Amino acid sequence: MKPDYFRGVEYKGSYVKAEECPSPASIPVVAFTGRSNSGKSSLLSSICDHQNLARTSKKAGKTVTLNYFLVPPGSSGGPGLYLVDLPGYGYATLSHAERERIRVMVDEYLEATPFRLLVIVLDARRKPAQEEISIRQWCEAHGFRFVFALTKWDKLNNKERSQTLHTWKEFGAPHQPVSNESGYGISEMIKLVRGR
Ligand SMILES: Nc1nc2c(ncn2[C@@H]2O[C@H](COP(=O)(O)OP(=O)(O)OP(=O)(O)O)[C@@H](O)[C@H]2O)c(=O)[nH]1
Ligand SMILES: [Mg+2]
């Protein structure tokens, strides 16, 4: 499926502070957050059908800044959209100080930004735990729409898939399985991100 809406998407810039980021006043923001290596940058690239889009601004494959991509106003007659690729939590080979800098930067950014949707990205092999409960409560308290994107769906067998879906149903939060390898679930993610 060719996501026409995202065809004109362009890299806008990389920032290290919430105050530096483009104003969300007129253009809504959809951000991708979650642990390091969960597949945030890959998911953003899949949604835009643009391989390595979210790699424009990064060096060794790891996201360390707040990276903005713009779907220009006028795409399909809409107001445009900012897609924000956030650095992951807990990237093991960074120094403690650098990990802490990233944690504070992302937390401050999340507190400062009114999102249209927060995509919480996690490896589908991870079960919802305290971290997921906390971020869900945080989104509910702020009144933000959110969805858990369960990545690497291609790595699960059929039994694991049905167990995982059962677990998430019990957890009772919006979730969408996806594979950035096979494209599974990407058209559903596109609908959620576009908001229609
Ligand atoms: N098999 C499979 N691999 C995936 C999938 N999504 C991402 N990956 C791989 O997982 C690794 C991490 O992906 P990234 O998109 O860089 O993860 P990230 O969440 O942006 O990582 P940080 O920038 O460190 O926070 C890469 O090697 C991807 O190719 C998927 O759906 N299936
Ligand atoms: Mg990344």
Give your account of this protein's structure.
The protein has 196 residues and is of the alpha/beta class. It contains 5 helices and 7 strands. It has a 7-stranded mixed sheet, with helices on both faces. Helix 4 links the parallel strand 6 (146-151) and strand 7 (175-177).
Question: Can you summarize this structure?
Answer:
By secondary structure, the protein is of the alpha/beta class.
Number of helices: 5
Query: Widest sheet: strand order?
Result: 1-3-4-2-5-6-7
Task: Assess the beta-strand content as a share of residues.
Answer: 15-25%
> Averaged pLDDT, please?
90
Structural class: alpha/beta
Record the SSE blueprint.
Layout: E1 10-15, E2 29-34, H1 40-47, E3 66-71, E4 81-85, H2 96-112, E5 117-123, H3 130-142, E6 146-151, H4 158-171, E7 175-177, H5 186-194
Parallel strand pairs: 2-4, 2-5, 5-6, 6-7
Antiparallel strand pairs: 1-3, 3-4
The structure holds guanosine-5'-triphosphate and magnesium ion (MG).
Provide the descriptors you would attach to this structure in a database record.
196 residues; Rossmann fold; seven-stranded mixed β-sheet; binds magnesium ion; single chain; globular; binds guanosine-5'-triphosphate; alpha/beta
